[in-house]
Amino acid sequence: MSMHVEEVAHVEGAGTLTFTKVWMILLVLTGVEVFLGYEQFPTLIMLTALLGISVVKAALIIAYFMHLKFERLSLFLTLFPMLVFCIIMMLVFLGDATRIPLMRPPQ
Amino acid sequence: MSTQQVAATVSVWEGGRSPYAVNSKKFGMWLFIVSDALTFTALLFAYTYSRVANPEWPKPFDFSPAIIFSTVMTFCLLSSSLTMVMAVQAMNRGNRKSAAGWILATMACGAGFVVLHLTEWMKLIKVEHVTPFTNPWGVPLFGGTFFALTGLHMTHVIIGIIYLGIICQAIVRGKFQPIDVEVSGLYWHFVDLVWMFIFPLVYLMSARV
């Protein structure tokens, strides 16, 4: 990476063809999600599969449409590890949700 | 030691340089996006937690038309992201007229999303009698978490359409630079990104086949 300051408005990173390909991949992944929704697997399997696909879709949008793939690594390292850490800290409590139905007194 | 060697040994973090090599407007938008992402994460977490903790959680979304509706809404937002990228590219080439056209297409896709979403809301409110506090299935948390999450997202979409409208009319009149279009694009892609989580977690997880 260059040590020089580049005050440019935009760095050409990907062309129209690449963006169209990413858009088509996102549409296909959406189709897979809708198929999973139609088949109705058990809740936790659905949750894991849908979240996994959503993370891939989010990564594609951030990398290509939001151009982060073509920015400096320092920008990514400043913004994202902290965000992912905070999200994981929130998800720590999700395990409780699976235990709550079992802890209810019988009616 | 030559000037070039000195420049190479001085860290970019010692001041007087731009360590990220991005425009300050763009960096500001990134910081906003990260903070907004945490807000949406908290709301999505609240919905998912309530969903998993309640085995009697309702499934109010029929595959036809609700899931088909929301799939079309997803298509609208994904397509609007592509048209926004085209707008940024056109602006970078200096073609303001083409950029304005692509921004208008983005706004149209966004407006389509809002219309479909409001139709879906009206069906839930008038036909299924769901409100933020009550619903016929006896799980009041459903309405509270659903309307808070999708309502905040729809607000973001509406603000995005207004934001793009301001950018569009300005670039036609020769105002604003390519970076301004790129920054508005960042916001729009973020709105699209959030929907990529709301659609599966809220709609597909509660589909009634």
3D architecture notes:
The complex is a heterodimer of chains A (107) and B (209). Chain A has helices at 16-39, 43-65, 73-91, 94-103. With 107 residues, chain A is mainly alpha-helical. Chain A has one domain (16-103). In chain A, helix 1 (16-39) runs antiparallel to helix 2 (43-65). Chain A is flat, with a radius of gyration of 20 Å. Mean pLDDT of chain A is 86; it is low at 1-11. With 209 residues, chain B is mostly helical. Chain B has one domain: Four Helix Bundle (Hemerythrin (Met), subunit A), CATH 1.20.120.80. Chain B is built from six helices and two strands; from the N terminus they run H-H-E-H-H-H-H-E. The longest helix of chain B is centred in the C-terminal third of the chain and has 33 residues, at 140-172. Chain B is globular, with a radius of gyration of 21 Å. Chain B starts with a helix and ends with a strand. Chains A and B meet through helix 1, helix 2, helix 3 and helix 4 of A and helix 2, helix 3 and helix 6 of B.
Topology, pairings included?
The complex is a heterodimer of chains A (107) and B (209).
Chain A: H1 16-39, H2 43-65, H3 73-91, H4 94-103
Chain B: H1 3-9, H2 24-53, E1 61-62, H3 63-92, H4 96-127, H5 140-172, H6 178-203, E2 207-208
Oligomeric status: heterodimer
Strand-pairing-aware structural class of chain A: mainly alpha
Number of strands of chain B: 2
Order of helices and strands of chain B: HHEHHHHE
Low-confidence stretches of chain B: none
Helix proportion of chain A: over 70%
H/E topology pattern of chain A: HHHH
Q: Measure the end-to-end span of chain A.
A: 65 Å
Sketch the major β-sheet of chain B.
2 strands, parallel
Cα radius of gyration of chain A in angstroms:
20 Å
- Could you name the CATH topology of chain B? Four Helix Bundle (Hemerythrin (Met), subunit A)
Greatest interface and its residue counts?
Answer: A-B, 55 and 62 residues
Strand content of chain B: under 5%
CATH 2nd-level architecture of chain B: Up-down Bundle
CATH first level of chain B = Mainly Alpha
Sheet of most strands of chain A: none
What number of domains of chain B? 1
Look at the structure and give the mean pLDDT of chain B. 92
- Total helical elements of chain B: 6
What value does the Rg of chain B take, in angstroms? 21 Å
**CA-based shape of chain B:** globular
